[in-house]
């Protein structure tokens, strides 16, 4: 989605969010009038709206815009897609990598559209499990492939900076549809995403 669209769409909302951030700064004891913070509420509002722009984007349209008829019928894997999302419980980042695969059934999709779909669902308030399901379901229902697989590995700042304060734990979630529900296909995918040659 073009950035211009985002700005035009959100002028009033940006102002409202800006005002809320200014109030928060005051509430935590900051001097909202000091030089370094003068533009902070506005910057924070723009950052938050950027990080949640997925609410205003349509992943189905993104996929439909680049579907091509092709007879290729082997697994297509896009691995190591960077993911940055916000947990819905604390609104703190969780981040890591997504690995997505599908087996075409008459149609392939433009490769860049897969990371775009990941971003549409990541740029919302999420839990990692639902993010995984959103991506799997969207590709399954739109592209209608023979199978879809998604694995996400992520670290959660709400478990690192606060709360339980575990710095090295990684959470892995997965979703499998169609042919990936068969153990051999699933294992082939898992083997390929763990190799450097896929
Ligand atoms: N399942 C799941 N849990 C998450 C995710 N992101 C954050 N959480 C968890 O959401 C839970 C919220 O639990 P609460 O007990 O209501 O919140 P809390 O008191 O801040 O919990 P602590 O983090 O344990 O201090 C915590 O266990 C978080 O670790 C996620 O993507 N998936
Ligand atoms: Zn959290």
TrEMBL record:
The keyword GTP-binding applies. GO terms for molecular function: GTP cyclohydrolase I activity. PANTHER family: GTP CYCLOHYDROLASE 1, GTP CYCLOHYDROLASE I. HAMAP family: FolE. Its EC number is 3.5.4.16. PROSITE patterns: GTP_CYCLOHYDROL_1_1 (PS00859), GTP_CYCLOHYDROL_1_2 (PS00860). InterPro entries: GTP-CH-I_C/QueF, GTP-CH-I_N, GTP_CycHdrlase_I, GTP_CycHdrlase_I_CS, GTP_CycHdrlase_I_dom. Pathway: Cofactor biosynthesis; 7,8-dihydroneopterin triphosphate biosynthesis; 7,8-dihydroneopterin triphosphate from GTP: step 1/1. The keyword Methyltransferase does not apply. Belongs to the GTP cyclohydrolase I family. It is an enzyme of class 3 (hydrolase). Homopolymer. Transmembrane segments: none annotated. It comes from the Bacteria. Keywords: GTP-binding, Hydrolase, Metal-binding, Nucleotide-binding, One-carbon metabolism, Zinc. Pfam families: GTP_cyclohydroI. This is GTP cyclohydrolase 1. Zn(2+) binds at residues 87, 90, 158. Residues 19-193 form the GTP cyclohydrolase I domain.
């Amino acid at each position: 989605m073009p950035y211009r669209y985002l700005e035009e769409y959100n002028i009033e909302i940006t102002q409202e969010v800006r005002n809320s951030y200014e109030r928060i700064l005051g509430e935590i004891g900051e001097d909202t009038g000091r030089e370094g913070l003068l533009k902070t509420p506005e910057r924070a509002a723009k950052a938050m709206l950027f990080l949640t722009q997925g609410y205003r984007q349509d992943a189905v349209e993104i996929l439909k815009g680049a579907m091509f008829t092709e007879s290729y019928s082997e697994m297509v894997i896009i691995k190591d897609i960077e993911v940055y999302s916000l947990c819905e419980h604390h609104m703190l980042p969780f981040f890591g990598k997504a690995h997505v695969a599908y087996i075409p059934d008459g149609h392939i999709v433009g490769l860049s559209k897969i990371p775009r779909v990941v971003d549409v669902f990541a740029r919302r308030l999420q839990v990692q499990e639902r993010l995984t399901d959103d991506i799997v379901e969207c590709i399954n229902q739109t592209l209608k492939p023979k199978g879809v697989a998604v694995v996400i590995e992520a670290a959660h700042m709400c478990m690192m900076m606060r709360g339980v304060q575990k710095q090295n734990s990684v959470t892995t979630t997965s979703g499998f549809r169609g042919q990936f529900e068969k153990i051999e296909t699933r294992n082939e995918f898992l083997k390929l995403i763990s190799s450097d040659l896929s």
